[in-house]
Design a protein that fits this description.
Elements lengths: L10 E6 L8 E6 L6 E7 L8 E3 L5 E6 L5 E6 L6 E2 L4 E2 L5 E7 L2 E6 L4 E6 L12 E4 L15 E6 L6 E5 L4 E8 L2 E9 L6 E6 L5 E6 L4 E8 L4 E9 L11 E6 L5 E6 L4 E8 L2 E9 L5 E7 L2 E6 L4 E7 L6 E8 L3 E6 L1
Antiparallel strand pairs: 1-2, 1-29, 2-3, 4-5, 5-6, 6-7, 6-8, 9-10, 10-11, 11-12, 13-14, 14-15, 15-16, 17-18, 18-19, 19-20, 21-22, 22-23, 23-24, 25-26, 26-27, 27-28
Length: about 350
């Protein structure tokens, strides 16, 4: 956990779009018991740090630069203000929208060009230098405007650490990958329903199920995950809204509760968080609640609270979650212009 000064101080880090007036990379303190955020500092040296990830020891923060050129940067976060741990490294891919840590590398999901880039890490967590390899996705989907080519929206390690999983909105598929001499390599590609537009994937604590939130249709695809051989099998698809949306819904984030009983999603076009109960045969929609702002781009969980990064209203809202029903209750928000994600140590 990132700490400073007082022992046990809890931290959150918020990404934002500087091109839309955001403050850049923001550090905040998390109040024990209430989950409330208090802003501590902001660093604006990296354009559009839209998505963040913390090292396992909580001392180094990684950020993408979601620009046409595309880059990744590392920061030391042992104090109140994130400090650069070396210069940004180009990822040779446009508009990286997500990143994850895997096998001693940072992997970036380059949405604009549809690729995954690997950047090696030094033992101290800093970026070791230039990118070591890049995997180009290929394919398309039936949505004429959004799926003319690949658009990788997320990349992360699976809970076992054996595999890296990339989610591609443009090709309606999930790729399970390994690293070969520092270059991401496809182990297998799993097709989801054509036109669904998968955006993000979250694993169940049992390590045997995964849930994919779909952006082009307001649904979650329930999958069986087989860590031994990197197999992903779609089982069923469940709506995240109680009725047909008035327009494009644009689901975004997905989170699974630590006890595995609930799944929560955020939907930007409707400005809601959805609560789904985990059942033996999949998921059941319980209901929705307002997200506390406008255009919830990302959703996160920490210590019994949910956090929504509301991009267009420019705030991060937090919600206390009822442990019995899974229903979030709005408790407050903090102003962060063009907020895009929030992560916790």
């Amino acid at each position: 956990m990132a700490q400073n000064g007082r022992a046990g101080r809890r931290r959150a880090f918020i990404g934002s779009f500087t091109a839309a007036g955001g403050p850049g990379l923001v550090a905040a303190e998390v109040a024990p018991g209430t989950g409330a955020l208090t802003l501590l500092s902001a660093v604006r040296d990296l354009p559009d740090p839209s998505y963040l990830a913390l090292s396992p020891d909580g001392r180094t923060l990684y950020a993408v630069s979601e620009t046409a050129e595309g880059a990744v940067a590392a920061y030391r976060v042992t104090g109140d203000r994130p400090e650069p741990a070396g210069p940004p490294v180009p990822v040779h891919g446009s508009s990286p929208a997500h990143l994850g840590l895997y096998a001693g590398h940072v992997l970036t999901a380059n949405y604009g060009c549809g690729s995954v880039t690997a950047v090696p890490l030094r033992p101290d967590g800093a970026l070791a230098g230039a990118a070591s390899g890049r995997l180009r996705h290929t394919g398309s989907g039936p949505h004429d405007r959004r799926q003319r080519g690949p658009h990788v929206h997320q990349v992360q390690a699976d809970p076992s650490g054996r595999w890296a999983v990339s989610v591609d909105l443009g090709t309606d598929s999930v790729r399970v990958c390994t690293l070969a001499d520092g270059t991401p390599a496809v182990h297998r590609e799993i097709a989801l329903r054509p036109g669904s537009g998968p955006r993000h994937l979250a694993f169940h604590p049992d390590g045997e199920h995964a849930y994919v939130v779909n952006e082009l249709t307001p649904t979650v695809t329930v999958c069986r995950w087989e860590p031994a051989d990197g197999g992903l099998k779609p089982l069923t698809e469940v709506a995240v809204l109680p009725g047909a949306p008035a327009g494009d819904a644009y689901p975004s984030g997905i989170v699974v509760s630590p006890d595995g009983r609930f799944v929560w999603t955020a939907t930007r076009g409707e400005d809601v968080l959805s609560v789904l109960s985990v059942q033996d045969d999949g998921l059941r929609l319980i209901g929705t609640v307002p997200c506390g702002g406008h255009w919830p781009r990302a959703l996160a969980r920490h210590d019994g609270f949910l956090y929504a990064a509301n991009e267009r209203s420019g705030d991060v809202s937090w919600f206390a979650v009822d442990r019995t029903t899974g229903i979030p209750r709005y408790d407050g928000s903090v102003r962060v212009a063009a907020a895009s994600c929030v992560v916790f140590g």
